[in-house]
Amino acid sequence: MSGNIKVAVRCASLFSALAEIARGATGLIRMEGKTTYLSPPPEDATTVGKAIEKETKAFSFDHSYWSAGSKDDPDYASQHTVYLFTLIMTQKKTDPDIKMASEKVSRISLIDLAGSERANSTGATGVRLKEGANINKSLTTLGKVISALATQSTATTKKKGGAEHIPYRDSVLTWLLKDSIGGNSKTAMIAAISPADYDETLSTLRYADQAKKIKNQAVVNEDPNAKLIRELKEELEAMRKRVALPPGQAAEAFYDKSVPAEKQMVVFLDREGKEQTISKAEMQEKMESAEKLMAEINQSWEEKIQKTKVVQEEREKALEELGISIEKNVVGVFTPKKAPHLVNLNEDPLMSECLLYQIKPGKTIVGNLESAADIRLSGTKVLAEHCHFQCSPDMKEVTIQAMENSATMVNGQRLNSGEPRKLKSGYRIILGDFHVFRFNNPEQARIDRDARQSKLPHEIRSPGLSGFEDDNSRTSSPMTRPESPVSTASEVVDWEYAKNEARQKLPDGHMLDLESLPDDDLNSLYQKVVRTHAHRRGTSVGRPDSRMSLSFTATDDDDDSGDSPSNRPSSSSNWTNDDSMDSTMTYSGTTVSEGDRYESAKEEIERRLEVQKQEYERRIESMANGESDEIQQEKIKLVQNEMQRMLDIQKKHYETRVKKLLAKRKAEDDDFEFVHFTDDQKQLIKRALVRWRRNRRVRMAEDIMAHAIVVKEANVISRELDKDVTYQLMVLDQVFPASALETITGLMDLDEVTDQALESASKPCVAVKVLDRRNKAVYVWSLDKLNQRLQQMRNLNNFIDKPEYSANFDWDAPFYEAAPLSHSYIGSAIISLKPLSRFLLAASTASVYSRYSSEPIATCRIRLQPTHYSPEQAITLEAGVKMTVEITVDKVSGLHSSDFASLHCQLRISSIAGTVTTPDDNLVSNAFPTSSLSKFRMKKSVTIGVTAEIAQYIQDGYATVHFFAEPKHGFFDRMEQWDEMREGAGVIAPRGVEPAIPEPVARRNETELVLEQRHDVLAMIQICELSAEGSYDPVPVVAVNTLDPGAFYLRQGLQRRLIIRLSHNSGRQFPWTKFLKVELGNARLLDPRGRVHSAEHGKDTILRSITRQTCQFQPDGSSELTFVTSWDSSVHESIFLDRTTAQNHRALLALSWQVDVPRCKEPVTFMMDIAVTMQNRDARPPSKIASFLSSTRILSKATALFCVRLIPFTPKKTAEIWRLNTAGKFVRGEDILGKWKPRGLTLIKDFNNAAVSERRSADVDATQAILGAMSRERLTSYPPAPDPNALLQKALALWSKRFGPVNDIVLAQDPSPSKEPELATPLPPEPQRKRKKMVPEVRLIPRTDVAARRGFLSVLRDPTSDEWVKQYFVLKRPYLFCYETSSELEELSVVNVSSVRVDNNLEVEAMLGRKNIFAMYTPQNCYFFQAANPKDLKEWCDKIDPSRN
Prior knowledge:
Helix 19 (708-720) crosses helix 22. Strands 38, 39, 41, 42, 43, 46, 47 and 48 form an 8-stranded mixed beta sheet that branches. With 1445 residues, the chain is an alpha+beta fold. The chain has 33 helices and 57 strands. It is 29% helix and 25% strand.
């Protein structure tokens, strides 16, 4: 039996069994050797009906023990007490040779299993029954484990689904026995059986039979390193013995000593017992390697670390001498500190000093690529052995020697073959035609520096020449160019410097002589001069992929050779355009008008022409000196003609520029027609304008039309959230006072928060009345306050389905006032103060006008009685008079108890006197219930000290009585019904009259609408780097969470491309064309604490497109605009981009771009920040596996969402005011409002009619009081009455005279068609109206992670081809984001659902031929979606449009 599990069976001794055997019973068990036989019991009355085995069963085990018989039986096995314990034994051993300790650990477990118990046979109940059930459960689980292990051990083929599952965890018993029966162990199992119970014995034997089938592979628990050392040591000892055997003990010992070791064969047994035959040489080699390995193993860790450090230091020191440094496992190349070397100079400054060639001690040969030289160069005129450098052993002196016919130049001088030239630091070396180097010798530079420092106290030298003279320079003449690297400290030794230096000299050191040059060299030189000249003139471009942009100006008069540093092209980018002339006409620090600018430009041009003309004349005069008359005349004539031609060309150019400027000015002036007015007319115009602006009719009409949609949306949200409040527009002429009763009783807070916008607004103005049914109050808000509250309402509506967030919100704050008063202002009545100026009674039955509806709602009687005044002889009110007035308000009628609960009135003393004369300005009545208005009465007295201002106010002013009441629901219903009736929604035709059918309204042209538009633009930013395959691959964008836009993972030294891709779903409503300007800059550093650090230096750069811009409009209404450019981070000159970024830091860059939209007045400007992290070139990209273990996300691009708001122009004509109407604009959920509509321009008409009627009524009552008080006696003292006919004629003339404007200004909410007479000859067609352009406003939408719904939907992409695409959508109000997969990494598109309408019906499904279809309508587009099932369909519709619930 194989395996490590041993099974033994013992038949236990039972007293009852012995008694049964004594009575003649037959035993069921017998044992023969290792086989145990189990016989079936005989049939009797107790076994009738049971399934009884008919055959004897045999089981083979490792051991069988018989303990059921007599102790005298020779096969009897005695019983011993079984102890349950676990032994853990650890064996530690130290090898004296290698001085290493090893240990072996083993665990011995002895477990006595309880037998299974049958409840029927034991009769156990209660706790004993539960204990037996637990025992049986553990044993059953053990049986499953043994069966599974046995099946796994006996299986011949491997199961497809993996290894057999072993249920160790199903019970504590099997978990404890896991190592004993299925692990690295040797196990012995003893099964106890009884000869008296067949069933229990059969079950136990089956247990044992299954256990013996388990096969385990037991190994020693030994440390792998110790095992390897032990085996290596044993193998080494064996080889040593075989090599050192004496003669006569091994076959290989009989070889002659003259036989080499490679041919002497040795036979030995390896560790596995296999015979191996190898040569003695191979055995010795193996033995040496094993001994070396053993020696390394015997070393301690401290010795190994010390040895590694020594090797590392030697390696770094050797590399450092070669100019290679290793720091923190990063390899870098730097200038060597000792070895002389060459560094390259290139036309492109960014490529200079990128190559470094070491000059070794001794001889260093330079040749072409086919040679075996030390330094190999490519290109023309580089020979196989071009030149060689000779370096001294101490590296202090280096010479160069040119080979025959080699083009080798030092400091512009060509070397002759065979003549060595000593080199010093800074010398320029040109090899062949293209290779330009600068020689550096650190050791020589160090010696020169020490020498200069030692001479400084005794000698003052020029800083530009010190340290650069050599032996040749000391003996050369003063006019000879020195052999120093630079002639002055200001010159820069670069590629251009070395080239200019070489062009100036011939091999002998003299200036260039063109006559002596061969034809080939002369032609080559001519072609180079032509190319250089064309490049400088801008007619050709050099290298197209150069990193530099060389732009400079060269005129025809330039005679300089360009060899001076000041004439060399600058490395900075100078962008010029056709309007560069305008910049010369700008005066710094002075702001001039547009007209002055044109005049100054013209004067500047004329001045320049005059100066140039004088210069030409001076040159002509200078040429005439010393010449004969004929020659002078001929030269002067030629020069004059040439100069005149140049002057004509420049004059024509300047005149063209001036004409363009003047044409632009004339086009601007043509829009205005100047009319001259007299001084009286100007004064009259000013008075008319002041009066006109005071009316504010047009301004109020604009506010009403523009804010209609705001009021509508506020009412929709309040209805959806059941706030029981209604908002409506109204016209306000004064701020309503608060009830003074509640101020007295302390119901009003001391720190009352007023509406500042309403207080400071010019009156009359448009406001919002709030009908608060819940608090039974009515109050007024300004339009600004409503806009602020509406934003809060939208935020609440977005979180309506997020109870975990909405539980923390105050859901009532945006809809109501914090503490509304119980008594609300309901209306006011006015009375003229003119009778008081004559000390007469002013009495009037005035109408109480409601400012909310501009209609009278009640009447009252107001009496102002002067009871005392001094001096009594005064006839009219004058300054210095003191007057006491008794004020009475009573007989209030017209207010119903269903509308109001109680009523009181109040009057300000300032409304009578014009100014406050007492600390308490309010005269307040008591509150009376509306059911007993007959008792309403307020009687107060006030004494006024009259001044000139008060007398004038009483002569022309009015006193206002304000009424306050506790409104009921009837008042709110009546207010809403009045608004509906005025807007035509609630007009009911008289009985018997058919209601008029409204005429169909023609659809307006979109070009005539000037409503505000909103478009959502999704920007996708991508940076690509050049890969090894030559393609530009997107760099990863690392985002730490869902709210993080991410940071681009960039590597240094790679070419990059920046891609900006914009998309929107507005179709042709937002018709963009191209990118106008893209700018990147303002580099900053963001640290882990969120602090932003700005750089001291750095600049912005304008990015140019390198490909043709593409603009596509798809059939589904989407549009895409793409911009591709190359980007070099070094042009920003920022330290944050030139060095690697520290961990958890980011570099921020401001990215802005302008998009041309023909509909907009100016380009649409987008601005955002992008984050980058700079890494070294060999850095590995971030691992995507880490993103699965954390919230970090790896993206391929960064996205941003912008909201573009197009603000319409303001119409300049009142006839076009209807273009601003937003009442008909769709708002999601507006169906819930029913017949309600926002008030229109009828508000202004009602307000004007109410104001005129109220004042006229007060004036009539005042005139009647004055005329009625005049007695006939006083009338007789007046002059005689004029002729009645003349008086009648004068009255008729005044009656027929028309005051005010000739034509009334009509404010219409809808365009009215002009009624013109029909003409026989049709008029020519009216020219097409020029579409007014809109003003763009862009806002970056912040990110959010609050999602209301997620899931897959199929969307109709192309209606013409029935193309459906399945995509993943996430609803984050107010946007619906579209993703390609459920990972939600990159947005494909975005849809604004703030004003969306959702429709799903059978007609749509029948039209599209699909089930579970719903349509979504936005102001810009329409979408069709298909859900997976009806449940998803309903959930998506309810989440997108909550107003459907």
